[in-house]
Write a structure and sequence with these properties.
mainly alpha; Rna Polymerase Sigma Factor, Chain: A; 2 domains; elongated
Amino acid sequence: MHTGDRREDPSDEELLRDFLAGDAGAFEDLVQRFATELFTFVVRFVGSAAAAEDVVQETFLQVHQSAEGFDRDRRFKPWLFTIAANKARDHLRSRARKRERSVETARGNDDGPSLLEILSDPSAAADEAAMASEQRELVREVIDSMPDHLREVLLLGYYQHFAYKDIADVLGIPLGTVKSRLHAAVANFAVAYRRRMERKASR
């Protein structure tokens, strides 16, 4: 661990370089530095705490195995989140196949918090943080129902606060596509939320 007399912590890229030079502790520092943030992103993505733990573990294992091939001209964090997003997509595809085989797969067993149960955090909009429980449930349902490509860009842009360029790196899409998808995601959410509110009011 880094001691208090050190002037400043090493960058992510320096830690990876130290790990490749044989410093196992440097990799542990990377894990500690990103584990919580990565878990928060993944659990919002997949809607399951148990699955998110597995995805995060698989992500760091992939980083460990692929570190030699890391492009030194890139920044570490977008690369890390690229791996995590790919692992999360793999999980969602696998889960979708299981649901096709079993109509009994239902929401909210012991599957951990759903996608938006964690969204009422300080980084969310003030009115969202103050939502009543049933409103948060409604928001959760809307985002759960969004297409994967819109949900992931919404999570990266609005909840992880990634810059457009970093989102483009993580998702492997052009910068212009990031912007258009973000607009589409916000519009998709607004329409779906309004419809659900109208249905609820008409009951």
